[in-house]
């Protein structure tokens, strides 16, 4: 059997080796250990000005993550020969981060000169993506529900932490969620404390609207938006409350809720959709409640999350938030009455343990009157208003001002359509209509000429 042979020369050439049996590999490892120790103690020095160094003393990474170790070499002329502590001889050492702390070093030789440096690699068990508290590889409103459950918990600081969307090694904290995700993932900024600053970590990496979660479940806890009586005109700001539960069907043992509201419409100033969070039955924002909202104006959807932060569930019903929508007032739009749909979706309602509860969702609508002049209501006479039994619609000119008459409920449902001729008046029996507000609109040759609200009671 051929023996493994090394020649270590400080004043002459470099570390050379032949093909060697694996059983004698320890010889090289021992030689490098001794050289590293001697260099550190000052017993030997790098020759000829060849300098080898790493940009940092320690690399922190997720255990198992692929990383590259590349030393900076200066003062060389010609080719440099590398010898790493694991037997590799390439300029860059590619490794999987270990489970724990491991020292790597490299010996570089060039024309009889050498340089040596080492670097620690610390493999850490938690691979944190800032803002992704629940471990689903994306930052969004569902992550706030995890922050709420872990709020004010402290643990070990994450080394070299930042908010950029990059995998960062972190030590494990004492607690884990029911899905097995460690609390360290909720510490977005890595400072060792889960608090409101970690909400900014979610928002920093919140790039796309929510696409997961539950939809409508008949019989679930009602989640609804309540639109004030319309229709509305361009420039109007509409305050739309969001309610969870009812007196007949309250929410029980709730700790957090997340949902999306789709509002996409050319009649909405999408960049001005906002949310405010009043104090109420569920808690007080800034005290025992944390909140998050992210508006994606190009997609016409806003994601919202509200969570307790004191580890105490709440039962009850009532208003959770107000969504403020401004009707677009861009000039030049055609005369019309447009119906805007508000649709709830992608929900998650949980207790403190993270157990989900079902929600019943209701889609709402509101009407926007576009481009009507102030004299339009004089074209038809509508009475009485409010009406209980009969509603009268009479033309006020000899020439027919409108040829088509339509009546809509406030949820956008067409209740009646009737063609009108000159001198044609309508007497409508509304005794069996559902009480509420209705919108009457009249058009001629496809152009809206008339609109008026009427209440049936």
Q: Would you spell out the secondary-structure blueprint of this structure?
A:
Layout: E1 6-7, E2 16-17, H1 26-41, E3 51-53, E4 58-62, E5 66-69, E6 72-74, E7 81-84, E8 93-96, E9 100-110, E10 113-124, E11 126-128, H2 142-150, E12 168-170, H3 197-204, E13 221-225, E14 237-244, E15 251-254, E16 256-262, E17 274-276, E18 289-296, E19 301-308, E20 314-316, E21 318-326, E22 336-350, E23 356-357, E24 359-361, E25 364-370, E26 380-383, E27 390-395, E28 404-409, E29 414-419, E30 426-429, E31 436-444, E32 447-456
Parallel strand pairs: 4-10, 13-24
Antiparallel strand pairs: 1-2, 3-6, 5-8, 7-9, 9-10, 11-12, 13-14, 14-21, 15-20, 16-19, 16-22, 17-21, 18-19, 22-23, 22-25, 26-27, 27-30, 28-29, 28-31, 31-32
Could you explain the architecture of this structure?
There is one protein chain. A hairpin with a 5-residue loop joins strand 22 and strand 23. The N and C termini lie far apart (105 Å). 7% of the residues lie in helices and 40% in strands. It has three helices and 32 strands. Residues 1-29 and 41-46 have low confidence and may be disordered. It is mainly beta. Strands 16, 18, 19, 22, 23 and 25 form a six-stranded antiparallel beta sheet that branches. Strands 17-21-14-13-24 form a five-stranded mixed beta sheet, with no helix packed on it. A four-stranded mixed beta sheet has the order 4-10-9-7. It has helices at 26-41, 142-150, 197-204; strands spanning 6-7, 16-17, 51-53, 58-62, 66-69, 72-74, 81-84, 93-96, 100-110, 113-124, 126-128, 168-170, 221-225, 237-244, 251-254, 256-262, 274-276, 289-296, 301-308, 314-316, 318-326, 336-350, 356-357, 359-361, 364-370, 380-383, 390-395, 404-409, 414-419, 426-429, 436-444, 447-456.
